[in-house]
Amino acid sequence: QAELKVEAAAVSERLGRQPRLRVILVGNRPDSCLYVYRKLERCREVGVEADVQHMATKATQEELMEAIRTANEDDNIDAILVQLPLPPHMDESEAVDSLRPEKDVDGFHPLNMGMLMMRGRTSRLVP
């Protein structure tokens, strides 16, 4: 955790502000809610600003895609986490594929997965 604080401080200095994570959470699965809550706590402990865009279980795919588009386009959001699994009526692949690779905190975007599979390469996410 101390290393993460140092890294977050370096990113803060480079950006001129705290790095910011946007979590998109669809529904109320207890395990997902607990995971997100703990992720937010850890972010705050190391100096990363984090917020949750909580969407109803019945949200549409288009509403989810709009939330992702908005976060992708927001220069003050440095990383995005779409909490999986999504409700059964949603297309997880479409959601993950629509993330900007450099904002994909989980590294699930196909470009990031490919980079991780290649020897000597890393994900495009900038910490």
Automatic annotation (TrEMBL):
Gene Ontology molecular function: methenyltetrahydrofolate cyclohydrolase activity; methylenetetrahydrofolate dehydrogenase (NADP+) activity
GO annotation, biological process: tetrahydrofolate interconversion
SUPFAM superfamilies named in the record: Aminoacid dehydrogenase-like, N-terminal domain
Domain of life: Eukaryota
Pathway assignment: One-carbon metabolism; tetrahydrofolate interconversion
Protein name stated in the entry: methenyltetrahydrofolate cyclohydrolase
GO cellular component terms, A-Z: cytosol
EC class: hydrolase
Tetrahydrofolate dehydrogenase/cyclohydrolase catalytic domain mapped to chain residues: 2-106
Keywords: Hydrolase, Multifunctional enzyme, NADP, One-carbon metabolism, Oxidoreductase
Xref: InterPro entries: Aminoacid_DH-like_N_sf (IPR046346), THF_DH/CycHdrlase (IPR000672), THF_DH/CycHdrlase_cat_dom (IPR020630)
Subunit-structure text: Homodimer.
EC number: 3.5.4.9
